[in-house]
Write the structure tokens for this entry.
Amino acid sequence: MYSQNNEEEIIVKFFKGSSTGTFLDIGAYNPFKFSNTRALYEKGFKGVFVEPSPTLKPAFEKAYGQDEKIQLLPLCIGAKNGVVDFYNACGDAVSTTIKEETVRWEKGLGVKFELLQVEMVDVPTLINRCMYRTFDFINIDTEGNVFEILEQIDPVALDCQLMCVEWNSQNKQQYEAYFARFAMQKLLENGENLIYART
């Protein structure tokens, strides 16, 4: 299993019987470790990986660089377009554009961050750059600005059937209100992630 917890089990079960589909993985981190999309890829799904860390880029190029059905975009996603400070965790899964997020990882686990300048785009700009325009599954795992990204997404317009978002047990009412707007049903809640499906 590639997922951090049991997310993969829920995701694969939801798409049971389907060997085709499209995913969008924002904050992809690693082709295998903690991946909520690798199992779908192995089933035959195609998709877009979005990961701004230059440290992590070679692993994605090795795993997917020869696959024409996969697109790799080295971007940050947020509420604006432009160049932003990016705190690169140099291989750890906690790179972020939010300075406050680095403090808890530096103090708690001794993670070292490298300050870089990277391109940030909003979701409409991201979709325009993607080789696909609809996504059966969307995964969002960024550090500190997940909801900022999520609230720009219309799952109906993107024909999205299933979403997994990192919430880290914070702002539950905010997430519930968002998914209620689209009549999406919760399939999983754990300490790190929420999974919702369109009904």
Notes: The longest helix spans residues 99-109.
